Amino acid sequence: MNNSRQGKLAVIGGFILMFSVMGLVSNCFSLSIVPITSYFGFSRGSYAISQTLMFVCSAAFTLTSSRIYKKLDLVKAVRIAAVVVTAVFFLESFATRIWMFYIANALLGFCMAMCTSLPAGLLINEWIAVDANTFIGIAMMGSGVGGAVFNPMMNWLITGWGWQSAYRIMAVVMGAMAIPAAFLLMKRAPGAVDKRVDVSDKKSERKIPFMQKRLLIIAAVLFLSNGIAAALNFSINPHVQDLGYSAAFASMCSSLENAVMAVGKITVGRILDRKGAKTALYLSMGMTAVSLVCLAFFRSPVVIFLVLINLGLFFGCPIGTVGGVAVTSEAVGKEDMPAFVGTFGFAMSLGTTFAPMLLGNAYDIFGSYSPLLLALAAVLVLAMPLISIAFRTPLKTK
User: Fold this and answer.
1) Which of 2, 72, 169, 339 has the fewest CB atoms inside 10 Å of its own CB, making it the most exposed?
2) Right CATH number for 5-186+204-392 from 1.20.1250.20, 1.10.150.20, 3.30.470.30, 2.40.128.30?
3) Whether the Cβ atoms of residue 250 and residue 240 lie closer than 8 Å to each other
4) pTM over 0.85
5) What is the pLDDT of residues 138-163, one digit of tens each?
């Protein structure tokens, strides 16, 4: 079973799903902020709620995934979600009221989580035993590559055809890739038993209680690191445009950041395999803090600032997609990992949900993202000692 042909097909399938679904739905969302708010006259704060709802529903799926997988096989869930996410993305182009965007993005968030990082990571973990995190990183880099490819495409379509036509065309492109990948490449390993246990469902099956110092601190670290890294990711495109640069230049920055995140996912997966979660988390939080400060003071020479900004994207953002299984396994052990992966994944997803709302409201209050970016950098620096505390604290079992 180790590194078998079907295991490699699962990696390819995960890559395609991440490329087509997350690369478009999540990593190109920032391109819609300016055109949609300008077209309808929405405030950025009110429109940011739609992105927040996307990540709230994504987090909700992550937390309840074990219950869903007990009623609906993991692979069937991936296939259903791939079809639904394509249909909803297409239908969002017909939205005319803010509440319609809220409903569409809530559905997109739930279905995106159901067919991308968590199920792909679990399936690859079933097939690959050696350097599993590196292979998960290869699959997860699909979202970054997708964002790098789709950002200029979306920008070109929005500029030339309008955002509605851009959504419809890209929905067809997404479905043409995601649906075949879900049905042809994503399969369960022979004899695989779904042991995922929900927090509120079978507490007696857990050997390790969640409510103890070490696990709560790790959950807090994941919440902060992933949420603030997401804020960095989401703010680059609109912040660069606010500074007076063209939409084309901002789109180029978005493509660059997605390409950097793609390569970073393999690197972070390798770090998790070789150095462990502690080192990966230090790099994630430290480099993200540096990047936030550089983005807040973005100016010439542009190249130097772009390099420094992308350090956080290289080491910070990949934790949210690559690190779930690895951090959970190191925190509680491989035996209890299936019971906790949804909980730690929820902590990471919950952090992401606050990023759009914080950014939108910060802009409405200050007229700039810079004050919030500096505040988030300070929070990361102050929170970094929690990593050492978490892994020094002994873990208690029942």
Assistant:
1) 2
2) 1.20.1250.20
3) yes
4) no
5) 888 888 788 878 888 888 899 889 98
